[in-house]
What we know:
With 464 residues, the chain is of the alpha+beta class.
Amino acid sequence: MRKRPTGRLTTAVVGAAVLLGCVSGPAASQSPRDSHDARVRAEDKRVLVFSKTAGFRHDSIPAGVAAVKQLGDTGGFTVDATEDAAAFTAGNLRRYDAVVFLSTTGDVLNAAQQTAFEGYIRHGGAYVGIHAAADTEYDWAFYGGLAGAYFQSHPAIQPATVDVEDHAHPATSGLAETWNRTDEWYNYRSNPRERAHVLASLDETSYTGGTMNGDHPIAWCQNYQGGRAFYTGGGHTKESYAEPLFREHLLGGIRWAVGDAQADCRPENGYRPIFDGTRASLEDWRQAGPGSFTLSDAGTLTTTGGMGMLWYDASSFESYSLKLDWKLAGDDNSGVFVGFPPSDDPWSAVNNGYEIQIDATDAADRTTGAVYGFKSADLKKRDRALNPPGEWNTYEIRVEGERLRVYLNGVKINDFTNTDPARSLTDGHIGIQNHGADDEVSFRDVRIKELPTQSGGVTASQGD
């Protein structure tokens, strides 16, 4: 039996706590923000704003250009602006970490310029589309896929309610569950949800003129043919670019696009919430051991006092994808447990299940992304994918048979197979740890998708 860990510990809310195997140890790897080769510093980044129009021209374009330049001044990246399509050459585009299409309309690039931009994206470049960027290049299939959807129509400018679907992406992490604002709300020719990761959508009951049958994405992101793409449908009005929340939304999208912040932008469909930020959703969770979590008005659970674990009591899971968002306040410690039997003894999870660790400054087999005590994460991939304390991260923990894979912000960083006959990943509960009184870790949006299994308990093959 594994030696019980020592050191700081804490635990769960409204009835949940358990001490996770999280021993303090020597730092095995630096935080990615402390590592020079982990990521180019934000102040070295350069963004090109392109606002050429061949159709309708928005009078908000000057305000938009000025706003992006101001965001660059405060966000630490350099901004150039042009309406000259001659800027789209392979050599010139290599200078930029992202290209912003700001309310472009119509056919704005010739064939050679399109080829240069396709090469730029395929070699790791990034695209940011704002508003009428979706009303651009209808005959260029690559661009349509990159933008995610083409414009179809719009009603009159009016207030509407935006439902925030992703609370971890930097473009939406600062927003409440709903965002009420006035803009010109586009309808799109297709729904991008199957191809892109939807960050926010419109509540079509909150305004008139929506035509997307109640599923109306308005901001999304995706990894596209080697590059990154972020789009927001807001930004028609001049006033948009003076709104603090819209500016924060734009800044977050640009930060993600240039690689200064990480997020899971894979399409996400078929998940159901098991903690949705409400007190009612905690009724299916219970505490093992002392300690608790505090539920905030923003729908986050934050560790407080004691040590223990909050675990999901409503059912166990055999083959599934578990996603949840988490954030550290500083050098803090926590973890996610899977594959343990129901018990009010917090050590049951330690001795019978597996912990996916959250602590970037511990030993290699017990740091963020590790299967605690059993297998280290790929530290180079982990460091590139990890956001620092104070910013949200997303885990996907995929369990299929006795195989467990860990994705951090969409990047696979661990692949572990259980061979211990005394343990089984196919019969277990899930839980989140409160590690100690001095540790402050927050969780939100815990959701799960059950995956198909074959007869005999062997799961169907799933791709990476």
